Every structure is written in structure tokens, then in C-alpha cells.
């Protein structure tokens, strides 16, 4: 897999993973259904999926060559991008009209 394809793969996985907690009523995506699912569970799922996405990026980078050390700035930028990619799911779940009637 080329470097460009790896970057697009990580971005696609990040966009899907960032929105998944908002569309799934299950706890940790495989547990029992909760209506409505508490925000704390969604936040925990978001953090776990962010860590898995970051791990995928590190794995693909290591397969391309030597993995570069990252400072706190990288992680701050990654988390901000991840939250931005998850904004459509947040809007769908919390800001659309009638979401609380489910």
C-alpha cells in the first residue's frame, strides 16, 4: 500500500469511527441497547475508537518505514481533527429536532 493510500485509509477510518458512537444505541458498540444512551458512554467510545484509529495510523506508518516520534502537538491536532470529523454524528444525535423522543 502506498503512502497516499495509507493516509486516505486512516482518514476514512477516522471519519467512520468518530461518528459510530452517535449512531449506535449499544454500549461500547457491542453491549446491551440503551435508550437513551448516556453521554458518558458515547465519550468513552469516542476515546477508545480514537485510540484504535491512532494505533492503525502508527501501524501503517511503521509498515512504510521508521515510525517518527511525536510530541504533544501531534496528539492535540489529531484529537481536534477527530472531534471535527465526528461533528455530523453529534448533530444527528443531539441537535436534530425530536431526537429525545426515541
Automatic annotation (TrEMBL):
Organism from which the protein derives: Roseateles toxinivorans
Annotated protein name in UniProt: Uncharacterized protein DUF2818
Keywords assigned: Membrane, Transmembrane, Transmembrane helix
Membrane-traversing stretches: 41-60, 72-92
